[in-house]
Amino acid sequence: MNIKDLQFFLTAVEEENITQAAKRIGYTESGASHIIKRLEKEIGFPLFSRTRKGLVLTSNGERILPFARRIVQANELFIEEASAICGVLEGHISIGAYESIAIHWLPAALERFHTDFPHITVDIWEWRADEIEAGLEEGSIDFGITSPSKNGRMEWIPLKTEPYMAVCAPSSPLSQEPVFHLRRLEETVCILPYHTDPDLYHSLDPIDIHPKQVFSARNEFTMMALVGQNLGVSILPELLLRGYQGDNVLLPLSPPIYRSLGILIPSMKDASPAARRFLHYLRSAVEQIEGTTPPLSTLRYSTHHGEI
Q1: Strands 213-217 and 190-193, sheet pairing
Q2: What does pTM read for this prediction?
Q3: Is residue 263 within 8 Å of residue 294, measured between CB atoms?
Q4: 271: closest CA among 18, 84, 19, 45?
Q5: Which residues, in sequence order, are CB contacts of 305 under 8 Å at separation 6+?
Q6: Which residue from 99, 239, 258, 260 has the highest number of Cβ atoms inside 10 Å of its Cβ?
Q7: Quick one: pLDDT at residue 232?
Q8: Would you state the pLDDT for residue 221?
Q9: What b/e sequence results for 34-46 when a residue is b if at least 16 CB atoms lie within 10 Å of its CB, and e otherwise?
Q10: Residue ranges of the chain whose pLDDT lies below 70
Q11: Who contacts 256 (Cβ-Cβ below 8 Å, separation ≥6)?
């Protein structure tokens, strides 16, 4: 079975469109269609159904998808390990990260990493915590930069603890106060993430605060726009708000609440040479941007989140 055929199959799954998948890889559309037909003939059943919305995996296609990912990943690990032995590191890394991390941390790390390893390609997926964990479990990404996993099945490497802040409109009376008292969430209209930030709700539960949520949104910038219309108050992490230049007022919280950010990875021992190298560059970049972080060489990896 041709590895490149399986690689294109995975690309077609991601794009849900033969034409877009062909453009991404650099194939013609007819050549891409031939690859899928050849692969279907070889395995003995159709992989896709074509709908108005694009390509949809058949039930059999769904069954073999994780195996295709493992084969392609094993091939990439083989190539990376062989090139590392020869002293020329090549390969590919797929990273799942919060959007704020992709904006504030990854560019600095990638700049230095690409200078030293120009032959390693990198995909960045700006996902929510649950999407990152799903990507790790199915093998579509090498590691995530996110909050700790609640199920404790993966290794967790802490990088930073960041505070949450309140966001209110400049016309709100709350904007004149030095801090935002969290108890006010029970009496003030709240604009909160729609199941996209479980850490926020886990932080509020121990202090027995139950927000009066009226508006919710998945995108934080949508929440900021709603706040700007004085429709309510939002609670967002500091990293996301860093560099904010709008009119909304940012206030510290009383009592303060935090979320932990770090590296979530199925197994550091089994990670590719490229991924292991990049994690050192990431730690160095975060240390320079945020201050001291635990060095990777001194961490004791654990399958229990938060334990080092």
Answers
A1: parallel
A2: 0.70
A3: no
A4: 84
A5: 148, 149, 150, 152, 156
A6: 239
A7: 93
A8: 84
A9: ebbeebbeeeeee
A10: 84-88, 195-196, 292-308
A11: 163, 164
Instruction: List the one residue out of 176, 153, 152 whose CA is nearest residue 166.
Output: 176
Quick one: pLDDT at residue 181? 95
Residue 118's Cβ-side half-sphere holds a number of Cα atoms within 13 Å equal to: 1
Contact 60, 68 (CB under 8 A): no
Specify the pLDDT at position 303: 31
pLDDT confidence of residue 302? 32
Closest CA to 145 of 154, 155, 134, 132: 132
What torsion, rounded to 10 degrees, do the Cα atoms 171, 174, 176, 181 define?
A: -160
Rounded to an integer, what distance in angstroms lies between the CA atom of residue 119 and that of residue 285? 20
Taking alpha carbons only, the member of 78, 108, 120 closest to residue 277 is 120
Burial class of residue 156, CB neighbours in 10 A (0-12, 13-18, 19+): buried
How far apart CA 20 and CA 205 sit, in angstroms, is: 44
Tokens of 281: 């560059």
Tokens 């992989």: give the residue: 47
Q: Tell me the two tokens of residue 29.
A: 């559309």
- CB of 245 closer than 8 Å to CB of 201: no
